[in-house]
Model the fold of this input.
Amino acid sequence: MQKVTVSKEKVMSDSKLMPFMEPNKLFATEYHDHVRYDYYLVGNIGDPEDYLDLCHALRSCGQQDEFFLRFNSGGGQVRTGNQILNALRECPAEVVGFIEHDCGSMTTFLFLACDTWGVSKYAEWFSHTVSGGNYGKENETFESSQFLRKQTHKRIRDEYANFLTPIEIESILKGSDIYLDADEIMDRLNIYAEARDSQGCGDENCPGCSQEPEVQETVDDLIAEAVDIGITKAMDKLMKKYSLVEKEVKPKTPSLKTKKAVKEAAEIYKSLGEEVPVIK
Done:
């Protein structure tokens, strides 16, 4: 028999004096061998302290547990999103991201950080560049805006790589908005998942990532390998039949006829009183 428990967030907002009016967002269902967590990230992403229960649950669950993040949010505060991202990356359990309807702005980064995904039939995706502002002295606002631009451009290129095309990413940085429906989201997730798996998690101690990836041979590689094998076999056969080393020529032993002729010639020289020539 499964046991369902509910964790109520401590919302530090205008209604923090009446926490009983806040909806429950985190649900834990206990099974005999694991716990399933369901968190509903809905509405605008607010202040960081509003998501302490979520971050704690992500970090404290077990590797055998299941964690479902259900999104219905158009985004919100970047600093809060970063806090949730950190907890997501430290979560030992597999995290499933599911888009109930809206998934926009900062929420898209959270969704892509999950281990696997699902979308509802009429899910909507919305990507754009950051919105915000600052105040202060002229030099302070200028320096702040310059930093925000640099950091935002780098992040959008990193987070959306292999999900959006390079042309789409550059168009976002120039102010365009990208909208995707459920089918378009799933098609891009297939490509994104393959690219992410090929890169690994970046942990040197990870058993799955420490192994060298299997190299897929191309047709050209197979042809080149076959040619090398054929040439090697042909050369071995040639070496067995012919020797490329120059053989030493041994001097021939003079025959008996040659010895007799030399002896007769020597006697003739002696009879004439001349010195017998020596042939080397």
Notes: Residues 1-14 have pLDDT under 50 and may be disordered. The first helix runs from residue 52 to 60. The CA atoms of residues 130 and 252 lie 98 Å apart. The domain at 3-128+177-210 is CATH 3.90.226.10 (2-enoyl-CoA Hydratase; Chain A, domain 1).
